[in-house]
Amino acid sequence: xxxxxxxxxxxxxxxxxxxxxxxxxxxxxxxxxxxxxxxxxxxxxxxxxxxxxxxxxxxxxxxxxxxxxxxxxxxxxxxxxxxxxxxxxxxxxxxxxxxxxxxxxxxxxxxxxxxxxxxxxxxxxxxxxxxxxxxxxxxxxxxxxxxxxxxxxxxxxxxxxxxxxxxxxxxxxxxxxxxxxxxxxxxxxxxxxxxxxxxxxxxxxxxxxxxxxxxxxxxxxxxxxxxxxxxxxxxxxxxxxxxxxxxxxxxxxxxxxxxxxxxxxxxxxxxxxxxxxxxxxxxxxxxxxxxxxxxxxxxxxxxxxxxxxxxxxxxxxxxxxxxxxxxxxxxxxxxxxxxxxxxxxxxxxxxxxxxxxxxxxxxxxxxxxxxxxxxxxxxxxxxxxxxxxxxxxxxxxxxxxxxxxxxxx
Length: 409
Ligand code: ATP
Ligand code: MG
Prior knowledge:
Distance between the termini: 19 Å
Strand content: 25-35%
Number of helices: 11
Bound molecules: adenosine-5'-triphosphate, magnesium ion
């Protein structure tokens, strides 16, 4: 892709009400466009990051038997009254149309449970797992943290249906492994944290990323054997970890995902039952498993940036390499040739082909956009050669195109 063809441009301006690091950088670099507090459009670069994160999440959900579906955003009021959440869900968006009142889905138990009733009849129909990656709506009071807290945002939500508690617990452990894989693959160190289970279960597990701008707080062992949300913390910071990894630490964090036991709370509300092998009717047991896809994108930026811009991990970056051409007489064919060879080799290249833009400005934009590898073609580097520098390193190296392709793959 040529920079001159890209729909977005970098900019030095940020809306004055935007205070979060992730939104400032993502707006300036041309990943998102701000519509209002907590509401953003995803530009081509941003959509590409969202797609990359979504693909990783899909692979991991498919690997634990998840089947992808799409449920509606527009949800009848009756469904929400059935669970009592039409009144009690504090951030529910309620809308009125010709056909009555609706909720804009902030989560999907009210849809997935009555749907499962159409298909789950007996113990032979269980377990089952469905998930979606879909836009959620929540009337958040403080939507000041950019992508970390949207009023409209993208979530992956998986729901599992089980006959027995033991079967649920087995799946819950599998989901934990899938979650660890997701966060590792997107380049985040997410700490598995004990949190409140709400009204119907003792605990839940949250995935927390240490970050000063986070709204959550945990007490954890840096050695990795303990973490609790301070909402429920039973221990104090400074206490020695059990495995001898030194004292427990208190830290601000971003919750990027969570997994939850729902027991029979929603299945009972909708009468979702199955007939067991003994002929008796029993309530289906459920789990739910969320990941904030757009929040993840924001969290990656919060954790991985410097004063110059974003530093994307390779797995989610919109391109593999950012090719900067420093104009000089006769070098035009060099860069064209290199772009062609790289593209043919399957390297996704963003080529800054702008004319009459200074090298300094091109480098500054490359740092801001944050693609993991920067390439330079110039008279100084020489014909048939490319200078390569990784975004998170300082020293450049020079390669022939062939060696570079080998290096990048
Ligand atoms: P929080 O405590 O941060 O409001 P939550 O407990 O309400 O989160 P869930 O309802 O469990 O979150 O949603 C599942 C996941 O969706 C969360 O782990 C988070 O990653 C993401 N998420 C929740 N609310 C938002 C939001 N307003 N904007 C972006 N992502 C969100
Ligand atoms: Mg919330």
